[in-house]
Specification:
With 265 residues, the chain is an alpha+beta fold. It has 6 helices and 15 strands.
Length: 265
């Protein structure tokens, strides 16, 4: 049997001690564990961004992987701590809309964590005081039913939706990566369903875009110079606004949640 993999996706940042504290406990509790940092750079409390990162950064791990997700993790009656099993992987997180956006609000294999004593009598750092202990129990083969009580539904998510208005749609920026590339909340397959073979026009600030380019270095044959802002397809399948070798978000003042209109001709 290979060593246990535990991933960390958090909004802790990189300047503080939080990641080191949790890693120390994981290495102490789980012999031979491999701890993988997905990111600690989620902006504080941004659940939709965290869901986007987990969806595209975590689901490809092998069965048996344990994922600790600590974003907006303050337990309340409506938002308890849970474990979700999906395709043989385990997700320890808060039922705050994030797991429902990944796995759906119903028909999930999940338990509310109950009866497992925290490391301290304080409740300000669940990942350290509770999630590490739950990860250790899962690594030891503890059945989920021994971690808490079953639930058949999760707190619903509030995802970005693509608004449809006749021959136009409105999409949103749902993620901006370190290069300043802006991911939209529509995949290329979904976009083609809306498009139905028609030409389109997307206005971003003062730039008109009417083509989906296949790579960052592709040029528009109607424009011998590379377009100042291009529409392409990211590795996630989502449409993406980018500028080769430049930061599109900064240059066009694009921000998380910004809306963009697309008109079909």
């Amino acid at each position: 049997m290979g060593s246990t993999i535990v991933t960390l996706t958090t909004d802790w940042g990189y300047a503080d001690f939080f990641a080191g504290s949790v890693k120390g406990k994981l290495y102490s509790y789980i012999p031979g564990v491999q701890v993988v940092d997905i990111t600690h750079g989620i902006p504080p409390f941004q659940i939709p961004r965290a869901a986007f990162v987990v969806k595209h950064g975590c689901l490809g791990f092998p069965p048996g992987t344990i994922h600790i997700i600590d974003v907006c993790s303050s337990q309340t009656t409506d938002h308890p701590f849970i474990v979700v099993e999906h395709n043989g992987q385990y997700f320890i997180c808060t039922d705050n809309g994030l797991p429902a956006s990944l796995f759906g609000a119903t028909g999930v294999n999940a338990v509310v964590i109950d009866g497992i004593r925290q490391e301290t009598d304080y409740y300000n750092f669940a990942a350290s005081d509770l999630f590490c202990k739950v990860a250790a129990l899962l690594a030891q083969g503890t059945p989920m039913d021994e971690l808490g009580f079953r639930v058949d539904s999760l707190c619903p998510s509030t995802p970005f939706t693509t608004a449809v208005f006749g021959d136009s749609i409105k999409v949103h920026v749902v993620y901006i990566d370190e290069y300043g590339n802006c991911y939209l909340n529509v995949t290329v397959d979904e976009f083609e369903q809306y498009r139905q073979g028609r030409k389109f026009e997307m206005m971003v600030r003062e730039v008109r875009i009417n083509k989906i380019l296949t790579s960052y270095i592709e040029t528009d044959p109607q424009n011998p110079r590379r377009a100042p802002l291009m529409l392409t397809v990211s590795s996630t399948g989502h449409l993406e606004l980018a500028i080769p070798y430049e930061n599109a978000a900064e240059m066009f003042n694009l921000q998380y949640r910004d809306s963009i209109a697309v008109r079909f001709l």
